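Practice problem: predict the structure.
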Amino acid sequence: MPVAWVTRQPVPGAGQVWAALSAGHRETGLIPFLLGSLPGYPSRPWDDEEFEEPVDPSELDHMDAAHVLAEMWDGEMEDEEAWEDPEWIAMRSPFSIQFPGLAPPGDTALRPDQLNRTLDSLGAARIGLVPASRSADVLPLIGWTPSDQSDALPIAAVVRSWEERFGARLLRIGFAEISILVDRPPTSVEHAQRIAAEHFVFCDECAGQGLSDIPRITANLLETPIWTFWWD
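Answer:
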């Protein structure tokens, strides 16, 4: 059974189209997203249909993002030899081996000019629409999975939490990559560091730039309201 409608060709000004479709969600019940692809293979994953069976997003109602992220953090810290390794200490700086907990919510919304500048920078893209009550639920509903996990539920649970804390909305879905647009991004280094700790364990590389350490992720969070995540 079809779970999404997608355009065949890229849509000019896709960022603004995505915003307009997002604004109409209350009336349409449809969540929009931009289609990404595997670099060098534009047909993947969409035209090659590289998806698993859809998963009921109601399972997310029983998942706690703090627990999911803490387990991811503990998984990264399993190797005791890495606890005192200078490279690992630098990668997780300023935090120790203990997960620092969820970052506090953002309280400063993007100005309209910041939002429009971000949307205008996106260029042309194919657009998808999925019937869903919230954007994080699109990931399990279409059967999307990152390459190193069996399903999207843990990822969607964290994205739901970012929806609530930072006004995050799913922006783009690619082969093993997603991007979200955040309405209330961090405005201080300290807040960005707390969020970067979540990003650090959430995926393999961040920002579409291969970032995998908290200091560089922190700097990127203060530069753009688009958060991008990639999995091996």
